[in-house]
Amino acid sequence: MDGIHFNVRLEEDRLCTLVVMGALADGTKEPVAIEDGFRDSTESWSSILRDLKRRGMRVSLVVTGDGALGFWAVAREIWPETRGRRCWVHKIANVLDKLPKRLQPKAKSLLHEAMNAPTKAACIEAMNDFEREFAAKYPKAVKCLRKDEDALMTFYDFPAQQWTHLRTSNPIESTFATLRIRQRVTKGAGSRKKALLMALKLIEMASKRWRRLKGYELMAELANGCRFEDGIGQRHTDVSMETSKEDTA
Fold first, then answer.
1. How far apart are CA 113 and CA 147, in angstroms?
2. Which helix (H) or strand (E) holds 38?
3. Closest Cα partner for 2 from 14, 15, 17, 13?
4. pTM of the prediction?
5. What are the domain boundaries of the chain?
6. Which stretch of 149-153, 228-232, 245-249 has the lowest confidence by average pLDDT?
7. Number of Cα atoms under 13 Å in the Cβ half of residue 46
8. Would the N or C end of the chain have less CB density within 10 A of its end CB?
9. Helices H, strands E: what count in the chain?
10. What CATH fold (topology level) applies to the domain 1-86+169-214?
């Protein structure tokens, strides 16, 4: 989930286009919703999610997006079972913004260590290192990181093969890059309707080049309730333990 703003030449307000990208059971990614929102508001996201529900979309297992989205408050009401995932790229940018430039390279290194940690325990330790380094003088940066701590680590409860898709909202951000280039060339569409149509067509064209979700063969296990810890499925482990107990008996 994410939103992107467009300039509209003949109107005062900018267009906020809200976009939902989904992944199917076979790993195929496709645009699910592209709508005109009002400043990324809760009301706009509510309209989109309720429309998706009416169209027959089942509750998603997990959603990744920026922490500032008005989407999250709505999701807790309409999709209470959905796991929320905060984008690490957005989070790192927000944390670095609260530090002086001379400290940002070191801070970025610590944050990337947390983002790419192989286990949840290692991620927590890396965030603890960041806090020990910056808490005394820059408490706002530490608070910004810690407030979404659990949502930043949700991906550890999913297959390791899929982490690259879940850590960030890059799959949708890369598509937005194409839209921004087009807007710079055209200087913005003449109306909100034409701006939205341009976004729709460009995203549809970009979707033809989207890569299939890695580890898509594990989607059925996720849907059937298989638990994952640090990216490793626990079902086979539990079965093997039960078998060992029976053999011992």
1. 18
2. none
3. 17
4. 0.81
5. 1-86+169-214
6. 245-249
7. 7
8. C
9. 12, 7
10. Nucleotidyltransferase; domain 5 (3.30.420)
